[in-house]
Amino acid sequence: MELVLIGSGNIATVLGKAFHQRGISIKQVYSRKIHHAAQLAGQLNAEPIDDVQKIIKNADCYLMAVSDEAIGPIAASLNLGDHLLVHTAGAISKEILLQASSNVGVFWPMKMIRKNQDQLGSLQIVVDGSTPSNQAYLSNLARLIGAKVALADNSQREKLHLMAVVCSNFTNHLYHLAHDYCIRNNLDFSLLYSIIIQTATGIQGVNPTETQAGPAFRGDKGTMEKHLQLLNEDPTLLNFYREFSKSIQMLNGVVKK
Questions:
Q1: Which three-class secondary structure state does DSSP give residue 44?
Q2: Rounded to an integer, what distance in angstroms lies between the CA atom of residue 226 and that of residue 163?
Q3: Beta pairing class for 104-109 and 124-129
């Protein structure tokens, strides 16, 4: 199995290392900046290139791990015939790659990935392909690096990506706001780790409606009023508190919609 990596950023780096560790050959690493390509290629025993015209035409799969905005322009500059070309984006249609190859797919790691990660850890990869054989190939590729596999077409994947933003990026932003609040009030943010972990693990295998708790859920107006007073000088958190509390109460019938 021979791959070409198109990209040298976070996803290309971590996936490239995972493939290499499992004996999958990375033939080339492409990046617009040759020193970026060389940095990753050196770790993968691959050839670094900065010209798409130098991409070999006989690899088994071409994995494009670049920004969403770059997928279309790069695909437009490729001519891979019927060789499998895939991207790693959650919100981009696989059909954008048809300008470069008749066999296309998606290999989307549903996880926040950073270059400094030594291991992928627990990972869900969402796979799509223009043919059943493409889907089977990409599913096998995901399993080779220890990932769980889910199949999703363009429409399903777009919606999954949206909910991934809600469940991951939005909650991380709330952690950010809570961290800053703790610093301003001389509190240790790490004291919240246990309840953060408990909340995340508690919803596994159950409907989140069954694990909801807190003053808004109970209709505890006295506690909610105290919280609002404590947030008087923090308008961003104050707005979040009001809107989230209102949503919780509406969904649980505490107040009318």
A1: helix
A2: 32
A3: antiparallel
**Cα 217 to Cα 154, 253, 254, distances in angstroms:** 36, 9, 7
* Paired tokens of 247: 């949503």
Q: If you average pLDDT over residues 101-109, what whole number do you get?
A: 96
Q: Helix, strand, or coil here: 120?
A: coil
Residue 254 — very low, low, confident or very high, per pLDDT cuts 50/70/90? low
Q: Which residues contact 162 (CB under 8 A, 6 or more apart)?
A: 91
The model's confidence at residue 199, banded by pLDDT at 50, 70 and 90, is very high
Kindly write down the DSSP assignment for every residue of 222-236, as one continuous string.
Answer: HHHHHHHHHTTT-HH
Domains of the chain: residue spans and CATH: 2-152 (3.40.50.720), 158-251 (1.10.1040.20)
Bridge-partner residues for 104, per DSSP?
A: 85
* Whole-prediction pTM: 0.87
Q: What is the DSSP letter of 122?
A: S
Tokens standing for residue 254: 């505490």
Contacts with 11 (C-beta within 8 Å, 6 or more apart), sequence order = 65, 88, 109, 113
Q: Long-range contacts made by residues 75-82, C-beta under 8 angstroms, separation at least 24?
A: 75/99, 75/100, 76/100, 77/52, 77/53, 78/52, 81/57
Is the four-CA dihedral 124, 165, 202, 177 of positive or negative sign? positive
| Two structure tokens written together for 108 | 């989307």
Residue-level pLDDT at 255:
61
Phi, psi of 226, deg, nearest 5: -60, -45
* C-alpha span between 33 and 148 (Å, rounded): 33
